[in-house]
Amino acid sequence: MTNSPEQPARRSRTIARVAAVQALFQCEQSGDNAETVVDQFIRHRKITPGASFEDGHIPDADLKLFQDIVRTTTWNQDEIDKTIVAALPETWNITRLDPVLRALLRAGAYEILKTDVPGRVIINEYLDVAHGFFSGDEPRMVNGLLDTLNRNKAAANN
């Protein structure tokens, strides 16, 4: 197997997405704003090259992507939540979702709705993140919901 130059960049984006889900969860649970939590992650979790998970740090994350996901998702949370609720079964409320799942869906929904990254890439990334947090049916839910949002965006753009 050969290492392509894109692998380290892809890995840093994946790590940034995992950290963003954790930060969004922290924002919701603590009530702290995005700037406070982003600062805490940078200072205390050391989102820097050379850091290690073993030390409780987040190594080699794409800092710009991390900041963008956390800040923009929290700034647009009401709009994002409405979009998620519209894709959920009619009898479901967003508060019914596990808080980590809610944070993950918010981050994924933000990237699908507000960025130019191809939807399939975003869905695959957040599906991998979901598998890291959950061992039940949650990854399938993430796949289905983000796929619905991606198809809705594509239909609206045509």
Automatic annotation (TrEMBL):
On whether Cell cycle is a keyword of this UniProt record, the answer is no
Annotated NusB/RsmB/TIM44 domain ranges read: 15-151
GO terms, molecular function: RNA binding
Q: Which GO terms describe its biological process?
A: DNA-templated transcription termination; transcription antitermination
Organism (species): Neokomagataea tanensis
GO CC annotations on file: cytosol
As given in the record, the signal peptide range reads: none
Key words of the record: RNA-binding, Transcription, Transcription antitermination, Transcription regulation
| Pfam entry (one) | NusB
- Key word Transcription present: yes
Cross-referenced InterPro entries, in alphabetical order?
NusB-like_sf, NusB_fam, NusB_RsmB_TIM44
Write the protein's name: Transcription antitermination protein NusB
Transmembrane feature ranges = none
Q: What family is it from?
A: Belongs to the NusB family.
Q: What does this protein do?
A: Involved in transcription antitermination. Required for transcription of ribosomal RNA (rRNA) genes. Binds specifically to the boxA antiterminator sequence of the ribosomal RNA (rrn) operons.
